[in-house]
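tool_call: predict_structure(chain=1)
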Amino acid sequence: MAHAKTSYVCLPCRASYKQPYDRDRERICPRCAGALVHVGSAFAAPPRRDTAGWRTLTVLLNAGVRFHKSCCGGPGYRPRTLHEVRERMAYARRTGTPFAEALVLRDLP
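tool_result:
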């Protein structure tokens, strides 16, 4: 039986690839030969021409947020726009909440 595939992205190329998960193997982008980032199996890539979507994704990945499935509901809430990211950054600064945690809150108090 084949292993399930998970998503990897190359941020400079704005490309997403589904490959079998292997913790010990570093994935290389076929376009630029840079390292791919493991983002999880519940990931849906923005279109390549959507620069704002890819910038938002870059912020999320650099903060340590990934797209792994939870029990039945998928990965949960993730910001989709830079405006949502800015709101959550302001909330994190105002309340002292860790940035990665503020990014995945469903509703801001």
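agent: The chain has three helices and three strands. Proceeding to next step.
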